[in-house]
Amino acid sequence: MTDVVDSDELLRRIQRARACAAEEERSWRARSEELASADTDAARDATVRTLAYEAVTRVLDEVLRPGSRGPSGGPARAD
Q: Between 7-35 and 40-64, two packed helices, what is the crossing angle to 10 degrees?
């Protein structure tokens, strides 16, 4: 990886990665719900993938908007 990118391009790449992770999270969540009654093993796998993409989305949210989420993952409190 020898490409040199400026901060604006880096920000765009992080935003695209966050959008992709959020879309994957929604997709796997829907799949988990579809499979819940039919195939419990596949539903469990989809749930694990949902949680993984949720974690990636949360991390990228924190990179893009530090402090936007509270310690429990919900919205930050305005004290």
A: 160
